[in-house]
Amino acid sequence: MGAGRERPDTRARTGRWCTPFQHVATLLDHLARQLQADLGRNVVGLYVYGSLTQNAFDARRSDVDCVAVIRRRLSPVVVSRLRANLGRLSDRHSWMRRLQLTILIQRELLRFNGDGWLYQFGRLSRTGSDGNPIIWANIFESGQVVFGADPHTFVPPITAALMHAALEREIGYLRTELVTNRASVWRGRPAYRRYAALTACRILYTLETGRVAPKRTAAVWALRRLPSVHRAIVSRAIARPPETRLLPLGPLRCLLEHVQRSLVAARKRPCLLAAAAGRSLRASRPEFWFCLRHPICEQHSWPPGGRTTASPFPS
After folding, report:
1. Which run of H or E residues covers position 47?
2. Rounded to an integer, what distance in angstroms lies between the CA atom of residue 6 and that of residue 156?
3. Please, what are the averages of pLDDT over each run of 10 residues along the chain (315 residues)?
4. Could you give the dihedral angle defined by the CA atoms of residues 59, 62, 68 and 69, in that order, rounded to the nearest 10 degrees?
């Protein structure tokens, strides 16, 4: 963001999308029209989340993260038409290569192994959905409605237990790529290793505070709390300009194991989840996130192995 620019009000709401990045605003306006034309009454709405709504958008490298909600599954004919029209839209807008659009079915938003589609890297694919609530937590706190219904009216309650399970899946995705899958194509990419280190910090931040934060915010927060053995790898991950060398795999794996142990400890002590939920409630709107009106005991753009949808922690 430029110096002196007033931060737009980005809490989830209906109305015209507001962003200081005119090219992004134009893209989202055209995308909204295309979705409404192709999906008709089947589309519930289009919602923006991630760095664009968290005052953390970097026009040089950030993705444009959004989710479209539909009422019923897409037929092959509709998918084919939408794929062709998104391709034509890509020819008109260079920012389409930054677009990460997830399409989810309303009744399956928080269902593991639900259905879904993902437009990423210029391709629309049927990917399924792992029902991850982190996207919706982000949208409730700072997202915007491009068009359609207020998400508070249709997203099911997000409990502490549901969020904790999502965080465990997220660290599992990272460990698969960097620990267990020796053939991973992502393991040797410098950008992915940085992403993994920063996502680990975001998982810890969410576990402790009950909120979703941009990568850098979570990393700075983590540097003040992590054991000293893990601080060097996090410092390198947020270095500017980004390092072109690979972050060392050994310290990165140790950081992931530390996060895994923290999640296991929280699962064994439900009071920790309740405490994080309470802090989130005091720090934000009453309806946001863990929904303490329900019992606590209730249940980036990388495509890591095993994941059925885009990362809930956006770039």
Report:
1. strand 43-49
2. 33
3. 36 48 88 97 95 82 92 96 96 90 96 92 91 90 92 92 92 96 94 96 93 92 97 95 90 97 84 48 34 25 40 57
4. -140
